[in-house]
Amino acid sequence: MQVIDKNKIVPLLDRLSKQSEVFVPTVKGSESGFYSWNSLNGAKEIALEALNVYHSPKNVLFPQTERMYSIEQGKQVFSIPDTFQDEKSRIIFGIRACDAKAITCFDDVFLTHGYEDSFYATRRKNTIIIGNACYQPGANCFCSSMGINPVQPDADVVIHDAGTVYAWEAITVTGQQFTEQVQDLLEEKDLGLPQLKPFSTEFDYDGVVEKLQGMFDHEIWHELAEPCMNCGTCTYMCPSCHCFDIQVKIWGDKGYRFRCWDSCMYTEYTAEAGGGNPRPDSQDRFRNRFLHKLEFFTERYDYPLCTGCGRCISVCPNGINIIDIIKRIKEVDKIV
Prior knowledge:
The protein is an alpha+beta fold. It contains 11 helices and 12 strands. The chain has helices at residues 9-16, 58-61, 97-111, 118-125, 173-181, 208-212, 220-225, 233-237, 282-301, 311-315, 322-330, and strands spanning 2-5, 21-28, 31-36, 65-73, 78-79, 90-95, 127-132, 157-161, 165-170, 187-188, 244-251, 254-261. The longest helix has 20 residues, at 282-301. The protein is globular, with a radius of gyration of 22 Å.
């Protein structure tokens, strides 16, 4: 088995950052997320051994705000002089299985079913993903209940914490090619991998999609939505949420279009130019979020949009818990 000594992680990141922008899980004061290695103040900020970080790395492939193309308009002519395709090489290093699965969700949304988002596609093809196997689930972790293997992230390479070393496992052809480039930092060693510890939060997800298919008008949504104030925090913290808005900036006859994250929890998200809104009420927006996560996405891609990271549980100011919602949905035939 190939391994890399933990003392060689910093030299590895230093080398990689000379050719690519490397994003690593990092703790910065009260914040944590995936930050560029070159922006850090030394190795002490790296959080590879942390369970997970506050912000997922979705911003690496799907920026919170990104320019799409420039525009010029004249009296009778409208032109697009430039399209902003970001071809920079990137490496996401140390991603956990829940966040890696979210990237798989993005791949399906932006690259399949007859449509390819060129902005996402350009970033994605130039990104290598190094997963970090997770053997110690946290209190709000439930990825296994959503069908995800925490010790085998969807990645090109997976590292496994084995004490003083990380076991190094190349998964894809890209991962094998990447491994060859850093071969001098690896060595062969016989060792056993850790055992996955039990999840404190587990439930049976089977049957949820079928149950939801007959629940659009069920009265339970009024009860479940009552605590929600549509702040949208859950959607921004979620690693797999991908709603966006497109806006324009114009100065005289020149400007550009850009897109930015949006939230289905906001009234304006479904506002129509004619004044209508198909989801005018808080309950309608709440219901749509969970139907999309648990039913609609599964019907299209054969797996749920929720990856079980638990961030929405941790950040909701009113204590809304998606696990409780799933359990209530499964019990719906018992509700009077």
